[in-house]
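Chapter summary example.
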Amino acid sequence: MKTVRNIIWAMIAVMSVLWFAMEPQLFSSTHLFEWRSALIQYSGILSLMLMSIAMILAMRLPVVENWLHGMDKAYRVHKWLGISGVALGVAHWLWYQVPKWLVISGVTARPVKHSGEGPAGNLSGIEAWIHGLRDLAQGMGEWGFYMLLVLLVVSLWSAVKYKPFKLSHRLMSVAYLLIAVHSALLLKRAYWGEPIYYLTVAFAVIGSIAALYSLLGFVGRRSKHSAIVASTRYFSQAEVMELVLTPEASWQGHKAGQFAYLRFGDEDAHPFTIVSGSESNELRFLIKELGDFTTGLYERVRAGDVVMVEGPYGRLEFDLDQPQIWIAGGVGIASFFAALEELKVQIAHPNIHLFYCTRGIDGQLVDELWHLAHQANVKLHVIDTLKSPRLNAEHIASQCGNLSQYEVYFCGPEVFSKALKKELDTYQFDIEKSYHEELFVMR
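The structure predicted for these 443 residues follows.
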């Protein structure tokens, strides 16, 4: 993730240098509208670039997942690029509107003309045609911006249910297309033919292709497989449903720690971690009741139903060359079920501790976990947070000894992970190198 951040910052730096090369007089200017003209362009270009990259990450391309070491990482980068792009869009809108308000209120004088724009009469051919589309592009950008603001709130507001959340993401592609056209047509005439012009247009084109790819329903199409519900089971205390599927022959298998999208009937697809081992002919899932879709799912799904499976995704790979500590929070135990299934067939492996933190214990589910851990020769520690303090680094060290010799794998709530990493840092544990986590969250 650190490498990805550095690359994105490097791209921002390059675009900034190219922009400043076109505005060398800016920092010697005291004219408000000269600054306005330049910063409208700068904020718009950066906003478009970040949103374009976010659109590409949403395509679920294997090459992107391999580069970022997991679709969960891709979604995290996608989320923050989207938020940053919209924030720059707000700055872009403010730079356009605020000086106009100052003119209307009489605080400042109206400028004679904007910097960098020549008279329309001096243009010909394609230049005149583009100039004639400026008003249309202006309106498209404004509507796209307002649309994007509303959709961002819907996407991030946890009270919004899953269907509106999914619809908001689909409509974001429409908003992006409006903004991309706006950006390409309203680049300063002085930028035409320069590197920053070609790069900006390239981002707009590539991002638009990604947006159309999503709108036309191509995302994940090559990874979709039909499956039949073989059986279901419900753990009432843990409020977890076990779902076992028999996939069609086109399913190419999976690795421990991966997840898949499941689509039941006309419902939207939802992501769930695969619990079964890679050698199994069936796909097993443990689905926690956490929202409007998963609540009561066990009552709606029956053996023999057809389910569409898309995947597998994820790169939470377990390196068994050295001792490991596995930490699961709640339904995060699903990833480790699959890993335990893998270990059952291995003759020997390094020392492994599994800490399962849960709010209330379902006896049937925990008994199955104990049995599986015993078969895999893994030391299991179950922490019921209703009765015991939250798991911390001190507790882990007391059970495992010197933490620096371990690789730590975490799957659970983000807040839990952040607190744990902060505590592990006091033990001189190398977080960057030896702490691996599943970052997948929907919002």
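To summarize the output: The chain has three domains: 2-215, 223-313, 324-438.
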